[in-house]
Every structure is written in C-alpha cells, then in structure tokens.
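Illustration 12: Molybdopterin adenylyltransferase.
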Amino acid sequence: MVRIGILTISDRASRGEYEDLSGTAIEAWLKRAVTTEWKPVRRIVPDGIETVRDALLALCDEERVDLVLTTGGTGPAPRDLTPEAMCMVIERELPGFGELMRRVSLESVPTAILSGQMAGTRGHTLIINLPGKPASIDVCLNAVFPAVPYCLDLIGAGRIETDPRLCKTFRPA
Ligand SMILES: Nc1ncnc2c1ncn2[C@@H]1O[C@H](COP(=O)(O)OP(=O)(O)OP(=O)(O)O)[C@@H](O)[C@H]1O
Ligand SMILES: Nc1nc2c(c(=O)[nH]1)N[C@H]1C(S)=C(S)[C@@H](COP(=O)(O)O)O[C@H]1N2
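Figure caption equivalent — predicted structure in token form:
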C-alpha cells in the first residue's frame, strides 16, 4: 500500500503550544483527493537543519514512504531551515514545484515570494515542501498535485489515483 509522510516543521506546534492545523489540513486534502488506498505517516519536529534532515532521512530510508509533504520552515526567519535541510537530503531537485506554488500563492498573498519551498527526489521518494500557514495547504496542493502521480510513476514509487472532481491527475499518453 502507498504510504505518504506528512512532516510538520514548527517550533510551537512541536511543543504543543498550538494545534498542528497544517499537518491535519494536508491529511484531510489527501483523504478527499487520493482514491487509491494509502496510509499516512505523520511526524512533527521543531525547526532546524538537523531535525528536518533526520526526519526526512527516516521517512525516506527507514519508513520508505512514496511521497513526503512537509509544512513550515520555508521562510527567511533565522530558524526557517527547511530548504537547507532539503539540500542535504534530496538527490535531484524539481524546481517546477516551488515555482508553481509561489505563483499561485502570490494571487492571495504578496509574501508568497518569501517562501523557499522546493521539491526533489531521494531514491523512490518524492518530497514536496509547503508553507507553514494552514491556509496555504489547499492552494499549493491543488496547484501541483495533478503532476504528482506521474512523477511517482517515473521514480518507481507506488501508483496513486485521484478523484478527478478534486484533482485531475495528468499522465502523458
Ligand atoms: N503546523 C501549524 N499549525 C497551525 N498553524 C501554523 C502551523 N505552522 C505555522 N502556523 C501558523 O502560521 C504562522 C506562520 O508560520 P511560521 O512557520 O512562520 O511560524 P513561526 O512563527 O515560525 O512558528 P513556530 O515558532 O511555531 O515555528 C504561525 O505563526 C502560525 O500562526
Ligand atoms: N499560499 C500561501 N503561501 C504562503 C503564505 C500564505 O499565507 N499562503 N505565507 C507566506 C509567508 S508570510 C511566508 S514567511 C512563507 C514561509 O512560511 P513558512 O516559514 O511558514 O514555511 O510562506 C509564504 N507562502
């Protein structure tokens, strides 16, 4: 069965100071849109290069998930280090994901340009970064997810299908 890692990166949510609404929004979006049987692997860590690197390595190399969606730590504040951790983990960057997510996010918030969200592959796992704001989750996933199933096919990850009313998966003929 396909397994999808959901990694929340937030100092305060990891300490329980607020509820992890963004990780929950990712899981809810996937529950609505992905029709293939799949299992979430939820993790939460504080911001930091090592914390994020180690969580990503564990999800990719030990849990062997097909896809990881992260939320948080993509901004320019000193403790926002998700992109730096990504650079230590991914073997190939896929710049189109970050480009498109920033473009659609700019339609609602000018500060979307502050996010260094990126995506890349490690072995048979695709990793995509989303911003920390709960409201950014649906905007970003609606934009990029139509390309995710084919990307998973190409890297030898599990096959997933989506509900075309919510997400029109595109697989070139
Ligand atoms: N996982 C989350 N669940 C709910 N709200 C979140 C989450 N992550 C971020 N937010 C909200 O988005 C805002 C901006 O996100 P950002 O990642 O910049 O937070 P932050 O102020 O650095 O938080 P933290 O100190 O927890 O890492 C936060 O102040 C918070 O209101
Ligand atoms: N769609 C969307 N994208 C967004 C935002 C948002 O509210 N909605 N917030 C922006 C802001 S204010 C910041 S600082 C960056 C980085 O956020 P992060 O550090 O929580 O990942 O994401 C940006 N991208």
